[in-house]
Amino acid sequence: MQQMAIDRAKRNLAKALAMGTLSPSLLAGCVTNSTAAKSNVELGCMNTNQVLIGGAIRRQGQFEAVVYSQLGQFQHHIPLPARGHGVAIAPSKHHAVMFARRPGSYAMVFDYRDGEEKALIPAENNRHFYGHGVYSNDGRWLYATQGERATSRGIIGVYDAENSYKKVAEFSGFGVGPHEIIIMSDGRLVVGVGGVHTQGRTPINLATMKPSLSYLSGNGELLDQVMLPDHHKSIRHLAHDGEQTVLCGQQYRGEPDDYVPLVAMHRTGESLVELGGEPEQWARFNHYVASIAATDSHILATSPRGNCYGIWDKSSLDLLEINVLPDASGVVVKNDQLYVSSGVGKVVKINADLTKNAFVSGIQWDNHWSAIT
């Protein structure tokens, strides 16, 4: 019944957006006048350097990338060939890339200042995109998680951002079914390897899956690989805290009545350490964690399937709270504040002291967010 209500709410939101009856109010008009500015500051208005890019559902069967301006208003709606998933933002030019949801057929590069498409990267006939990618720290290379269609063999496609995003290399040898890839400050690539061989989106090797958190050099050399004791925890989504801490979220592929930790933390040279929570608390996440972010003091993970997000203390790893948010999706961190999106248009701003403000964005946010820093 709860899922039916959520689906109905999403349909109603899509209808309102299509008819123009729901005005976008998220962070809008932050500098109209002193009184309005004061009001918006109290509501948590974004600073001028906080620009967000995320996938969205425009209406049934139509998808887009949405760019928010420095004032938190709509700047660009960029139509997508199919449903998008993750976003990579270039550090050295005004480019962003939207990756198709797995098994994806495209990656679209666009200029987030004017919304102009710069390149549409097709997946080769025997490849598909897994929905995520990241630029090298100097912006020269774009790394994208890919799979071989027949086997789900994991591949990192390497594209030359200075040469029309031509594919120049592939890295492999780290496992099956990679999903998210991030980059550390020292240039190491970190890959969440799900370990699942799929046909379309149907898993076919759950008894033998081998998920891992894999570290690669910028040249594709496998530097380290760590695993959780339970091989049914498919490692999928990643984040780091700007230093040396990597966080990974899992999709549990084991017994449906088992409720196990779904977020783990890793530091180089150490084992994966799982975050706290009782089985009945982890049950709220419905076996799936999507976006993750970390501040100096807290870790946040969303669960669209569980219609909630959790917040943990970063030092003790204790679960502090679980909050209801229908179709909880993306999360970004900026200035020690967290912003969480949802597929029913709601956005929650979370301050360092965990006080919260909620907004209606007028956008059906879909999957992940990225912030232009």
UniProtKB/TrEMBL annotation:
Pfam families reported for this sequence: DUF1513 (PF07433)
This protein's record includes keyword Zinc: no
Signal peptide: 1-28
Keywords, alphabetical: Signal
InterPro entries the record matches: Quino_amine_DH_bsu, UCP028101, WD40/YVTN_repeat-like_dom_sf
Name the record gives this protein: DUF1513 domain-containing protein
Organism per entry: Vibrio chaetopteri
